[in-house]
Design goal:
This protein is of the alpha/beta class and 335 residues long. Helices cover 41% and strands 18% of the residues.
Length: 335
């Protein structure tokens, strides 16, 4: 079962897509009357294939009331996604658990209603960086998509717990920078970074291009096989005032996940197509095949796993207060 550069220009011009997508409709607000329009968000990486399949197969239109217009927005990182969700520019979609938990603990009224996948985080070392084990990281520079994002927390948790090495952010020995995963191969080639904590398919792409090598594979990264690499989130307002819509969204998401499980070859083709459309990068079949082996597509989610991960985020100083995720996960729509 096992044009992003052109789109990023568009993202910049539109404030990370915060203003597009049609806004909230009366349906999104919960009265179920009038013109119905919703917007779903996701990222162009393999952990979000359920979003790609749902869009390609128009699954949300099948579960939502007739006449509902479904829009899609693509995001470069979880912060942009969560801002769009909190402002009502999107009604739901897939995001990493890190941004979801961080925003929840900061007061955002959101719910995780399903998972999207597990696995898919790989620690890569640049060729020529003189790094053969994580113990070689002191004095080196690592990159993650954002400070405190899911992949960042996974990497820093592993480094602290297994090797006693921390980021310079907390007076440690590793320099931390951030950037888009689609650019990591070129950053390796230029020698600007030494290690990257990489979501698939970009890890497999780096492997194929030969600019880096696997330093720590998915099973040995902190929470590598248990933590949801993507979760489906929506607003508590939508959960409370329009549970039928949330039920419809989750049903479509479940159908997309089941499709991936039952039709991996077609799902891979959809992923290649959508990633090229969004990022202007065409990934080879071998890259997708390799990335697929590191991921399990599932909609099941457990709050305890998220709480453990949030505790790690707090211990690393990404959160100011010890988190309490009670109320974040609502599994009722999965039943």
């Amino acid at each position: 079962m096992k044009k992003f550069f052109s789109v990023f220009t568009l993202l910049t011009l539109s404030l990370i897509l915060a203003a597009c997508g049609g806004g909230e409709s009366s349906s999104a607000n919960g009265d179920g009357e009038g013109n119905k329009e919703i917007t779903i968000g996701y990222f162009p990486n393999i952990n979000h294939v359920a979003g790609m399949v749902a869009e390609e197969k128009d699954l949300y239109s099948e579960t939502l009331p007739d006449g509902t217009k479904v829009n899609y927005q693509y995001f470069p990182d979880g912060s942009a996604f969560m801002t769009a969700l909190e402002t009502g520019d999107i009604q739901g979609g897939l995001v990493g658990p890190g941004p979801a938990m961080n925003h929840f603990t900061s007061g955002a009224k959101i719910n995780v209603v399903a998972a999207g996948s597990t696995g898919g985080t790989v620690i890569m070392a640049r060729n020529g960086a003189d790094i053969t084990t994580p113990e070689d990281m002191p004095g080196k520079t690592f990159i993650s998509p954002r400070v405190g994002c899911t992949h960042d927390v996974q990497f820093e948790t592993m480094m602290k717990e297994e090797y006693g090495i921390t980021s310079s952010r907390i007076d440690g020995q590793m320099k931390h920078v951030t950037g888009k995963p689609a650019t990591y191969a070129s950053l390796f080639e230029s020698g600007k970074v030494d290690v990257a904590t990489v979501p698939e398919p970009w890890a497999s792409s780096i492997e194929e291009e030969g600019t880096g090598k696997v330093l720590v594979d998915t099973p040995n990264v902190a929470y590598g096989e248990t933590l949801p690499a993507a979760v489906f989130v929506t607003s508590q307002d939508l959960v409370e005032n329009n549970p039928d819509m949330v039920d419809n969204l989750v049903e479509a998401h479940k159908e997309a996940t089941t499709f991936i499980q039952d039709n991996p070859d077609e799902a891979k083709s959809i992923a290649i197509k959508k990633i090229k459309e969004i990022t202007d990068q065409e990934l080879s079949q071998s890259v997708i095949d390799n990335a697929w082996e590191r991921i399990d597509f599932t909609y099941e989610v457990e709050e305890k796993t998220l709480q453990d991960f949030a505790n790690s985020s707090y211990e690393l100083g990404f959160l100011e207060e010890k988190p309490n995720l009670e109320g974040l996960v609502d599994k009722s729509f999965l039943d």
